[in-house]
Specification:
Jelly Rolls; 2 domains; eight-stranded antiparallel sheet; mainly beta
Length: 392
């Protein structure tokens, strides 16, 4: 996928990229491993993932290039179930939604009438939520099986059956016929997240681009594709410690990709702050939703974003205190004497001011900070790098 010129990384102090347009609820990226979660099958990632239901035995052989390899043996005859395999049993709590996934492939697909044609069939007890079943063929010929958002009426322990019906009379040999599986996951969520062998904590889901600071997602919501999203009530991405506290003639650049879900009231986008006040704040003004960088004084621009559209926003302050605000690579505001609020700690909050006020509604998939004022050419280069990815 073409994404334009290289991004400027010189003097980058902090940043994140949620992988929007690249990552989803089954794909992780280097800096966005995925929504915090616990794999309820974390102790079962090799030998006991799949089992036979009838006629053809399934036996664990070993590991091969990251896959768990199982041999198939026996002669298939039709029976009670149209399934030749199932995944390990899980204890489910009634009324709770779960999601599960698995990668699977075989070297003898011709011996099956159908092989892993849907996700998982959890049916032995009444389902309160059927969920969404899917089987997606990937580029390497394997299948990604998923069932997302299912749940039982009552608490129960159940296996997930795989729709893998062999041809009647097909003979399987343990010496030549195999199935490979990996990334088995069951999690207490409405949607699948990228696989983790055990769990991802609230500080492991989104990584700082400089590998310096921890980002806490414990107060975040997530959409159906596994992306962090701000609910306009109490969501925020919190940074573990002071990133930078600016004053006097210190240059900075704050950059973000944002998609507002409303124009008012006040919406804090990125704040360098303590709980009670701030050093500087990028936000939308309550009167019309216009973008501004606020320091010791308001610097209200005339640019008003369109609700539901992504935009690229960059605010720079140079060593002479000249502030420039760019939107989609174009200058929208200049201020000749920008002043920071002085003496404030430099902790960062994205999507909220302090502990509760001015919460953001919408998406902020990218945030970056530099300890220089990017040039107009560098801002344009960054905009062009994001342009196609976010349809800017």
């Amino acid at each position: 996928m073409y994404v334009g010129p290289d991004l400027t990384n010189e003097n980058l102090v902090f940043g994140y990229d949620t992988g929007y347009g690249i990552a989803n609820n089954s794909t992780a990226t280097r800096f966005y491993p995925g929504e915090p979660t616990t794999n309820l099958q974390s102790g079962n990632q090799t030998t006991g993932i799949i089992e036979a239901v009838q006629a053809v035995s399934v036996t664990y052989v070993g590991q091969e290039n990251g896959w768990s390899k199982y041999s198939l043996n026996g002669t298939w005859t039709s029976g009670t179930y149209p399934y030749s395999m199932k995944v390990a049993t899980q204890a489910f709590t009634g009324g709770t939604k779960y999601s599960t996934q698995l990668l699977i492939k075989t070297n003898v697909e011709s011996k099956f009438v159908y092989f892993a044609t849907t996700g998982f069939n959890y049916v032995n007890e009444p389902l309160q939520y059927g969920g969404v079943n899917s089987s997606t063929i990937l580029d390497d010929g394997s299948r990604l099986l998923q069932r997302q958002g299912f749940g039982y009426v009552s608490s129960t322990s159940q296996s997930g059956y795989l729709l893998t019906r062999p041809v009647s009379g097909a003979v399987f040999s343990s010496a030549t016929d195999f199935v490979w599986v990996k990334n088995f996951q069951i999690e207490q969520k409405e949607n699948c997240t990228p696989h983790t062998p055990t769990s991802r904590s609230s500080t492991e889901g989104l990584l700082d681009l400089t590998n310096t600071f921890d980002l806490d997602l414990s107060n975040m919501s997530f959409n159906s594709t596994g992306q962090p999203t701000f609910n306009g009530t109490n969501n925020a991405i919190q940074v573990s410690s002071s990133v930078f506290n600016k004053s006097g003639s210190d240059p900075i650049t704050v950059e973000c990709i944002m998609k507002p879900g409303r124009l008012s009231p006040y919406q804090a986008i990125v704040v360098n702050r303590s709980n009670s006040t701030y050093n500087w704040m990028l936000y939308q003004h309550t009167t019309d939703g216009s973008i501004q960088l606020h320091g010791a004084a308001q610097n209200k621009s005339t640019y008003v974003p369109v609700v539901g559209n992504y935009i690229h926003v960059v605010a720079t302050v140079d060593s002479s205190n000249n502030m420039v605000l760019y939107v989609n690579g174009e200058v929208k505001q200049t201020v000749s004497s920008f002043a920071y609020q002085t003496g404030q700690p430099g902790a960062l909050s994205i999507g909220r001011f302090g502990t509760a006020s001015e919460p953001y509604l919408g998406d902020i998939p990218v945030v970056k900070f530099y300890d220089i004022a990017l040039t107009a050419a560098q801002v344009a280069s960054n905009f062009n790098a994001y342009k196609n990815r976010f349809n800017l």
